[in-house]
Amino acid sequence: MSSKRKGERSISPPPSKRKAQSSISKGAVASFFTPTSQKPKDRTAWSERAPEDDTPATLLVGRYEPENMDASDRRKRRKIAAFDLDSTLIVPASGKKFGNDPGDWKWWDSSVPSHLKELYKQKDYRVVILSNQAGLTLHPHPNSKAPKNAGKAKVSNFKQKCSAVLAQLDLPTTVYAATARDNYRKPRTGMWKEVCEDYDIPEHEVDLENSVFVGDAGGRTAQLRDAASGAAATGKDFSCSDRNLAHNIGIPYKTPEEFFLGEPPREFTRDFDLATYPYPEQDDKVLFERTNKQDIVLFCGPPGAGKSTFYWKHLKPLGYERVNQDILKSRTKCFKTAAELLGEGNSVAIVDVDNTNPDADGRKEWIEFAQKHDGVPIRCVWFKIPKALCEHNDVVRALNKTLNPEARAGLPGIAFNGYFSRFREPKVKEGFQDVVEIEFSFRGTKEDYALWARYWN
Questions:
Q1: What is the rounded distance in angstroms from the CA atom of residue 454 to the CA atom of residue 457?
Q2: How many structural domains does the chain have?
Q3: Tens of pLDDT along 388-418?
Q4: What is the pTM of this model?
Q5: Cα–Cα distance between 57 and 420 in angstroms, integer?
Q6: Cβ proximity of 228 and 238 under 8 Å
Q7: Basic and acidic residues: which segments have biased composition (predicted)?
Q8: Of 182, 203, 181, 204, nearest in space to 192 by CA
Q9: Hey, is 10 helix, strand or coil?
């Protein structure tokens, strides 16, 4: 096993401080009243890891080793069986949607432990658990107004629950819990990379064809009750993150029903499908032409649509000066700067202003602005891009420095929801000389595309 890496801090598992409740197992109640000296050693060693040097730790890691480990337990296993935790291996015993108490859990199905033991002991798999746990906070932000001990209690409860699950399973394994929206979070592959490093398996040596990821977030669609077969109605999955993680890694994906119960696959869908956006063939198509000696070009498009990239590649070479509210900080300064640029004889591209010009009322102010400045022509470039693609582009940009020359941080969901709730298609009749429609196509190197063409949400 490799030595402890940068960004990893060992921490001891916290003592049990919970009160016995009806949902706690009898064994847990008995353990509560057992003197510490007589309790079995907790065999789960906990640590924390950070996505980058000099950043707070966001990944919680619990490594379990049985009491009697032998050489076969420590050798490399190139087949990896990775599992989600909640609603895949365990569910709340109380029947609640989320179990708050560390003793409130049971196996998703009674066959789960035997399946996992068979994978490890008979089929030579390394068994690990990869779980998104956004409800946990390892290190609160210094400016957070939330009670400081509230986060510690949740983390403590989670560790107690995982320690109990791993002890019952009693296999050499590790649970990885991603607590932030960074590269550790599924479907991003940060946790998978940690698995490979922890077990000293270079990623290119993993037997991808025979490895597997099992999780309940498969993008399955809702299913009506089938009277003929007696199949019950089922709701749709809350996301497709588990299926997308398997896609990113390049391993098969199974739902818990398929893997543990042998049920047939159900239909699924993705809000954003990479298959729709293959690497484009090179073409010399001109996307924007200059038609006036001096004019204003107003961009209309959501965050993450590629507006800045389009400006630098297509309008800057034609002599357009850029007006960007992200830089100028206020709408008033945007109008002032645009007026100064026009006064100097420049043409102006209004790139990122007011999230960016989704409705006719906002666009009207720029049309009136053009009229007041000697009736300079104003054109519109409309970026026709769906919301899911914009959210994808935003995350790719935020988490990959090579694709983020302006060092932009990721945006909250409200930025996209706000734009699309207000959006009205731009029309020439609003006062534009013309409206140039731009459909999305990836524009960059194959190396850049290899980063872009993964699932990030």
A1: 9
A2: 2
A3: 999 999 999 999 988 888 888 888 999 999 9
A4: 0.85
A5: 35
A6: no
A7: 39-52
A8: 203
A9: strand
